[in-house]
Each structure stands twice: as C-alpha cells, then as structure tokens.
Amino acid sequence: xxxxxxxxxxxxxxxxxxxxxxxxxxxxxxxxxxxxxxxxxxxxxxxxxxxxxxxxxxxxxxxxxxxxxxxxxxxxxxxxxxxxxxxxxxxxxxxxxxxxxxxxxxxxxxxxxxxxxxxxxxxxxxxxxxxxxxxxxxxxxxxxxxxxxxxxxxxxxxxxxxxxxxxxxxxxxxxxxxxxx
Length: 181
Fold this sequence. Notes:
By secondary structure, the protein is an alpha+beta fold. The chain has 3 helices and 14 strands.
C-alpha cells in the first residue's frame, strides 16, 4: 500500500480493469464510494467514450466506443483508505503507475479527453480501406466491382476504381453504397 502523502492533492488517476468490465467497475466503484462514505476522497469516476458512425451490413449506426478499453479514470486524493477502496473494487487489476504507487495524469490530458468525449457529431467508421476489393450495391454503378483507392472518414466517402469500357475510372461513393468482398 502507498505511504501517506502530504499535502494531499486531488488528481486524476488511471486504473486498469479487465477488458469489457469498465462500466461495471465504474458503477461498482461509485456504489462503494457512497456506501463507505469516501465522497471526501474519491470525487469522480469516468469511462472515456466517444460517439462514432459505423457502417455494417449496409446500415449506418451511431455507436459509443471506449477510447481506452480496459481503463477507467478516477479523480481522487490518494490516501491508504481511498487507495484500498479503489484497488479492492471487483475487476480492478491495479493502478497505472510504478509498483503500487499511482501516478496522476496531467490536467491538460483530462481536458483534451473531456473535450473528445463531449463531441456531439460522431465520426464515420468505415470498414473498408485502400486496396480492398468491393462491390457497389447502390446507385448508378450498382453491381460493379472495384478496388478502394481512397477513404474520407470525415465525410463518409470512398473513392473506388471501377473498370469501365476497358479502363479504370475513379468513382466517389457514399460509404453505404459499397460492400467489402
């Protein structure tokens, strides 16, 4: 267990969890803080997520993706008691730091992360990449096969080279108009 630190400062720390248990750890830790009366030492628990647009099976979906799978952020003052509460929360494997001593992350990193998680407009998540063979499933070039020559994730557009009249022609398509072969 860590030694008592003076002066005690409120900082953000990263805890490592079993992958897929981040939300459960955050919920469990919040309950433990409340039931063990640790609100004066553990202030906030955050699972950083961002919204993205994913295109699968021809359908566009907005999904929330964890930015750091397997990690949860905790704002706390590290004392023997608060360290023990966090460390012994189910599915927590430890703090990120040296040995048993947690290392705080900078306020700048937290601000960047909060800004990233607060973004309302999700980004396009396109499964195809340059060089992939695709089939065009919609629009004037329906049923043509081609090869991806460019991906614009910001706009959700894909450039595909299709063979028309014996020569390759570049066609810009919406990412929903293609299917990976």
